[in-house]
Amino acid sequence: MFIPGFKIDDHNDKLLKAHQRKLKMVSEEIRNAENIIEKLMQFQVAIPSWALGTGGTRFGRFSGKGEPGTLEEKIEDIGLLHALNRSSGAISLHIPWDIPRNTQSIKALAAQLGIRFDAVNSNTFQDQKDQSWSYKFGSLHHVDKKVRQQAIEHNLEVIEYGKALGSNAITVWLSDGSSFPGQLNFRKAFQNTLESFEEIYRRLPSDWKMFIEYKAFEPNFYSMTVGDWGQSLLYASKLGEKAYTLVDLGHHLPNANIEQIVSLLLMEGKLGGFHFNDSKYGDDDLTVGSINPYQLFLIFYELVEGMDERNMNHATDLGWMIDASHNVKDPLEDLLQSVEAIKIAYAQALLVDKEKLKAAQQENDVVMAQEVLQNAFRTDTRPLLTEARLRAHAAIDPLLLFRELKVRDELIRQRGSVKIATGL
Ligand code: AOS
Ligand code: ZN
Ligand code: ZN
Ligand code: ZN
Predict the structure, then answer these.
(1) 288: CA distance to ligand 4 center in Å?
(2) Fold for domain 44-351?
(3) Is any ligand 1 atom within 6 A of the Cβ of residue 49?
(4) Distance CA 62, CA 54 (A)
(5) Which residues fall in a coiled-coil region (predicted)?
(6) What is the value of ipTM here, to two decimals?
(7) Vertex 167, ends 193 and 388: CA angle to 5°?
């Protein structure tokens, strides 16, 4: 399915007046509206190839309708999102769930829809058909070198796919760990993992980055071999300048101060990118901003402040990816909400009066520091996002247009009512 430009124009014409009224109001309130709109236009969020079908839990999966069954259809779905919001111009691929059989035509399709390839993801947390050794007791950390070798080779293969598609980063998330005390020698598990990472790192193209994603627990419940940002940073520091830590918002122990983690990783030049989602308990992978939008804003404030300090380009110098997927929403509507939430938080962060905050910090004026932050958080930045979309020829209200055009019904008509999409 393809959304013709005139449908977007018609939709926008209807909503234009109301939008202009709201934009005028907020622009009068803030100092840097034009600057924020320009930054928002540049900011793109990568959609994970595993989030386009309805997610499941270990207790079941209720398949949606009209879901994409092939990589081509997944890219087409991202094309729809991007046409609606002009903010989803990238895909993060998962191998082997989405092996690009014909890289040339996949690349051409993505290019036609304005989509580039963000980090490719390897998978050594499941056994694949025809694989010689099992990952039941881990992959890159395994006690047996031949299992580690198999996992290393898988990662090298993923890099090859990424190279063919024009990606320039690999995200490695390991489920390696232990579920019972005594199961592992922690030091040996670390050293085996490091040695495996080193072999992958040696073969990383010179202009690539390696993202090391940590996770506190699940599927292992006693220890994880890359369990927190300290361990990830340790690996990344030992590996070298192309290795970075990746922060998945759902991968912390309850109440962790993620914004502080982000700030310090940036300070060390070791923050690589993000997996955005939201959670109340653990790795819930809920829609971004659905549970704790204030935390998201605080994280974005640290990002903007820390990136500006290091003269980094907000749009291009970190990997911005969503990693959310669940049971009860239409996945495309869910992703529209997630992208919107990310950009709202980003815009709010750009609004913070940094000078005033700095002065308050210097004076130990705790009350004023909170006022400055919350003043930005409580500003409705949505008209700025809308204006950025309008200028990029996207829809004023992407979710509304998705429903008005009955996109899901059309996809069901084309693809049939039930399809099992791969993915978690
Ligand atoms: C797993 O919990 C991690 O969040 C991974 O980043 C991701 O969900 C997985 O790699 C899907 O490919
Ligand atoms: Zn993740
Ligand atoms: Zn996760
Ligand atoms: Zn997650």
Answers:
(1) 11
(2) TIM Barrel (3.20.20)
(3) no
(4) 7
(5) 16-43
(6) 0.96
(7) 120
